């Protein structure tokens, strides 16, 4: 079902099939939850994917896209130039690149430092807008991953609240790599808990839990996610990447 090499004319049909598959799985997962009315936004992760596929997805009314690299993202946004599209920045963000984000990306999922927050705030202020951000949490404390460790989260969140051109809108998580999506579940439920506690502590609602990728989005939805970041399952494998999927998520 994954789309590596196929003729251009078949791209849209293939993408439509992938979209229907993923949307169907989301609806079924929501049916198993206690809050089936939850609104879930599907972000198609388009890093390293050609513009042509993004345009085809937009024709299928998939409007949210996620990019990991500032330069690549900006080029695509400018090339495609379609105001219906909503761009999410989901990759590691250094403070020196932060100035390129406000006005271009509706939501940063991966904020993890005060320095970057200040740079986003400054640029957003100069444009007269508010940048929505999520804090990425590194629950497993993996050294190679972006994100703050759990103990640093409340402190960073409180400092972000003081920056009036930023709006703290939730949390994001990338669990440790695994071939069994059930291994991600405890991280998902922990992040939901952490969000609930943070809302109480800060006395503000946090709208988004960004968690769940191609291989574990079903578990993420079951544990409360409302922003899914799905790449290869929708758009095909990226150059140099292998997709591992368990049978649980491939059986409709
Ligand atoms: C690449 C990426 C994804 C999507 O990964 P897939 O396995 O292709 O679904 C999601 N989130 C982040 C932060 C990523 O870098």
Strand content: 15-25%
The topology string of helices and strands comes to HEHEHEEHEHEHEHEHH
CATH class descriptor name: Alpha Beta
Structural class: alpha/beta
Average pLDDT metric: 93
- Helix content class: 25-40%
Give the strand order, joined by hyphens, for the main sheet.
7-6-5-4-3-2-1-8
Q: Over the alpha carbons, how many angstroms does the gyration radius reach? A: 18 Å
What profile does the largest beta sheet have? 8 strands, parallel
CATH homology superfamily name: Alanine racemase
Distance linking N and C termini: 12 Å
Total helix count? 9
Describe what you observe in this structure.
The protein is of the alpha/beta class and 252 residues long. The chain has a single domain (8-250), classed as Alanine racemase (TIM Barrel). The chain has 9 helices and 8 strands. The protein has helices spanning 8-31, 51-59, 70-80, 114-127, 153-161, 185-202, 217-222, 232-235, 247-250; strands spanning 41-45, 64-67, 86-89, 107-111, 131-137, 166-173, 208-210, 227-230. The chain has an 8-stranded parallel β-sheet with strand order 7-6-5-4-3-2-1-8. The longest helix has 24 residues, at 8-31. The chain is globular, with a radius of gyration of 18 Å. It binds pyridoxal-5'-phosphate. Residues 45, 47, 68, 90-91, 174, 213-214, 229-233 line the site of pyridoxal-5'-phosphate.
């Amino acid at each position: 079902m994954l789309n590596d090499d196929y003729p251009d004319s078949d791209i849209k049909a293939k993408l439509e099939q992938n979209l229907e598959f993923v949307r169907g799985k989301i609806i079924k997962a929501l049916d198993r939850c206690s809050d089936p009315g939850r609104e879930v936004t599907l972000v198609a992760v388009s890093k390293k994917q050609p513009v042509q596929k993004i345009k085809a997805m937009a024709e299928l009314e998939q409007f949210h896209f996620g990019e990991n690299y500032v330069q690549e993202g900006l080029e695509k946004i400018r090339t495609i130039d379609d105001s219906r599209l909503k761009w999410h920045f989901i990759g590691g963000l250094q403070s020196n690149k932060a100035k390129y984000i406000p006005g271009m990306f509706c939501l940063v999922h991966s904020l993890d430092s005060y320095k970057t927050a200040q740079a986003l705030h400054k640029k957003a202020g100069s444009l007269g807008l508010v940048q929505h951000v999520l804090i990425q949490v590194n629950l497993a404390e993996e050294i190679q991953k972006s994100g703050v460790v759990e103990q640093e989260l409340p402190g960073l969140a409180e400092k972000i609240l003081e920056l009036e051109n930023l709006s703290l809108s939730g949390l994001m998580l990338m669990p440790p790599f695994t071939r069994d999506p059930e291994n991600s579940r405890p991280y998902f439920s922990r992040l939901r808990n952490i969000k609930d506690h943070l809302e109480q502590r800060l006395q503000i609602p946090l709208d988004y839990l960004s968690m769940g990728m191609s291989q574990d989005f079903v578990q993420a939805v079951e544990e409360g996610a409302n922003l899914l970041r799905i790449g290869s399952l929708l758009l095909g494998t990226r150059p140099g990447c292998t997709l591992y999927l368990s049978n649980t998520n491939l059986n409709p």
